[in-house]
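Much of our argument rests on the idea that a fold can be written as discrete symbols. In the encoding step, the backbone of a single protein was reduced to a row of integers, each denoting a local shape. We regard such an encoding as a compact summary of how the chain folds. The record that follows shows the chain in one-letter code together with its fold in token form:
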Amino acid sequence: MDLIGYVQDMYLLAAQGEKQGILFWVVVYTFIVSLYSLIFQVRTRYWPYTLGQLSRLAVDKFGGPENTAAGQNYMGRALYRYDVGGESYEGSRVSPWVIVASHNAKFLLEKQLSRVQQYPDGKVRVFYNPNKPQKSYLIVAGKAGIVFTVLLVVVPPLAYFFSYAG
């Protein structure tokens, strides 16, 4: 069967609510998003950095007020200034990995923020896009994050293939 015919068949199966068709499209979506994320993560690892002045770095409540601590969500927040090529910029992005955590998983955000490279004089490393210096992060993707994303690119298609090959 040709590829176009297979894709059409999977569309019809998904439209009928069949497991194979739905899984096919979930795998296609996961593959595309993960591949884009992988490319972006690898590119940011090669961004240059400059020293910036950190104004704020904290774990803040995210979303509406909750009645219980366990129902509250949190997000890492930052505010920093940096200069590139004589121009001043203000940044607020911590990492390409945006993490929203529950009260019980707040420690993940604290761990992420601990990776920000701070110096005794209050300066921080600011990684910036050399083509768009106004886009910056305090943390770029680490090797573990890249390996995790590679697994997201590779494992779902292989699992699908071995489940439905033949």
